[in-house]
Amino acid sequence: MEPIRILVIDDHQMVREGIKSSLSNAGNIEIVDEAQNGQEAIDKLKEQTVDLVLIDISMDVMDGIEATKIITKQHPEVKVLALTMHDEESNIINMLQAGALGYILKTTGMKELMEAINTVSKGETYFTKEVSGTLMKQFMKKKVETSKSENKSVEELTKREIEILKLIADEFTNQEIAEKLFISQRTVDTHRRNLIQKLNVKNTAGLVRFAFRNNITS
């Protein structure tokens, strides 16, 4: 089995040396090179064949977030695993949005670091317990905000709009809705467009999903 070829990116030489020393006995891991900032790493990736980069966030010249964006764009085959002291929600979210598959803290033990490397190298995600907790809080926060937003949207709908939304969710056509409610087909079409705009969805499928999420069905 080919070893996982790793580029270590950190602005502290002692950290880089510590990682290299700790991973030197891992039979399936090979440290091919190191870099002290994002720009140096990007330059080295033009010359090296690497499977995974182990990268810090705070670095001079180019930080880990910006470097990750460029690395994942220029080298989509290279997996990115963040190894940092920063456990703030903003840093975690920004790294994941930049393309990192894993995020672990420098307080992590060597056993878990190796597990993270093996997992991320396969294209799977890996987060330490603390990071997973932060992500779960973010998920729940968004879920609550979405729920509040949708409840507000429902309250803003008129009785007629709710009536039409129910029929749309029940797969009635504009003509069928018009006949059922004794209104013109053009009026139904206008209501449909207004609903899409009010509920901030893209199309009829979005209206149907909204209706089911909020129990607006016959």
Automatic annotation (TrEMBL):
<dbReference type="InterPro" id="IPR001789">
    <property type="entry name" value="Sig_transdc_resp-reg_receiver"/>
</dbReference>
<dbReference type="InterPro" id="IPR016032">
    <property type="entry name" value="Sig_transdc_resp-reg_C-effctor"/>
</dbReference>
<dbReference type="Pfam" id="PF00196">
    <property type="entry name" value="GerE"/>
</dbReference>
<keyword id="KW-0238">DNA-binding</keyword>
<dbReference type="InterPro" id="IPR000792">
    <property type="entry name" value="Tscrpt_reg_LuxR_C"/>
</dbReference>
<keyword id="KW-0597">Phosphoprotein</keyword>
<feature type="domain" description="Response regulatory">
    <location>
        <begin position="5"/>
        <end position="121"/>
    </location>
</feature>
<protein>
    <submittedName>
        <fullName>Response regulator transcription factor</fullName>
    </submittedName>
</protein>
<feature type="modified residue" description="4-aspartylphosphate">
    <location>
        <position position="56"/>
    </location>
</feature>
<feature type="domain" description="HTH luxR-type">
    <location>
        <begin position="150"/>
        <end position="215"/>
    </location>
</feature>
<dbReference type="InterPro" id="IPR011006">
    <property type="entry name" value="CheY-like_superfamily"/>
</dbReference>
<dbReference type="Pfam" id="PF00072">
    <property type="entry name" value="Response_reg"/>
</dbReference>
<dbReference type="InterPro" id="IPR039420">
    <property type="entry name" value="WalR-like"/>
</dbReference>
<dbReference type="InterPro" id="IPR058245">
    <property type="entry name" value="NreC/VraR/RcsB-like_REC"/>
</dbReference>
